[in-house]
Design a protein that fits this description.
A hairpin with a 4-residue loop joins strand 1 and strand 2. Helices cover 29% and strands 32% of the residues. It has 3 helices and 7 strands, in the order H-E-E-H-E-E-E-E-E-H. The chain is globular, with a radius of gyration of 13 Å. Belongs to the profilin family. This is Profilin. GO terms for molecular function: actin monomer binding. Its main location: cytoplasm.
């Protein structure tokens, strides 16, 4: 299965009638493996900062999480495994696997819990596959 198929069929799938706004699978080095057409163009340092927060949980909290020049307030996640951010009525979930970062971006009426479930389920599956 191609990485693009994972994005389209697993991340951008329908959940209770809702869809993520954007999604991507990005290597730890910032290389894009696959992304939805709506995923923001990000800067390399934004991925570096996210990777640093996985290594040192809480490092993004004072400044916020930036992706594609959009600032998210960092909210409770799972240190070293999941980073969650909030912006207005939407937000972002990032799950770290052995080799990649799984991104899900949502807006109302999708809930944070629905976004977390989609992103973390795929992330756990990939971890189980050694990826």
């Amino acid at each position: 299965m191609s990485w693009q198929t994972y994005v389209e069929e697993h991340l951008m799938c329908e959940i209770d009638g809702q869809h993520l706004t954007a999604a991507a699978i990005v290597g730890h080095d910032g290389s894009v493996w696959a992304q939805s057409s709506s995923f923001p163009q990000f800067k390399p340092e934004e991925i570096t900062n996210i990777m640093n927060d996985f290594a040192e949980p809480g490092s993004l909290a004072p400044t916020g999480l930036y992706l594609g020049s959009t600032k998210y307030m960092v909210i409770q996640g799972e240190p070293g495994a999941v980073i969650r951010g909030k912006k207005g009525s939407g937000g972002i979930t990032i799950k770290k696997t052995n080799q990649a970062l799984i991104f899900g971006i949502y807006d109302e009426p999708m809930t944070p819990g629905q976004c977390n479930m989609v992103v973390e389920r795929l992330g756990d599956y990939l971890i189980d596959q050694g990826l």
